[in-house]
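User:
I would dearly like some help making sense of a protein record. Take your time, and here it is.
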Amino acid sequence: MFMPKNRQLRNVIIGAHIRDGEVKSADIGDLAIDLDDLKAEVTNLMGSIAMVEVTTAGGSATEAMTVPGVTGADSKVVATITDNGTNNVGLAQAGATGANTVTCIFSGDPSNDTVVCFFVQN
């Protein structure tokens, strides 16, 4: 397809125009994509993903925390502190260490009021 210089295609999908930012089944034609099928395929690609907030028990800079959704040490975990508590600690490291368990290493004793948010992918 020839396109003059400095021209852009906009609002075009499979030869049909998109109106009001919507794509309808008729616009897709023979490539009919069902939203539920697409969602299932994304889930298959990404695995199950969970977000969980857990409050520390305190007493040590290293703490094994119960995090539902972790299937084992091969789970991928992203952790961040959403409330650093009275001891004002930082999170140095977090990793899945077993089923429903993530071990965190803090910059000091997190006390019993530090909240950690975990994103888990299995």
Q: What stands out?
A: The two ends are 43 Å apart (CA to CA).
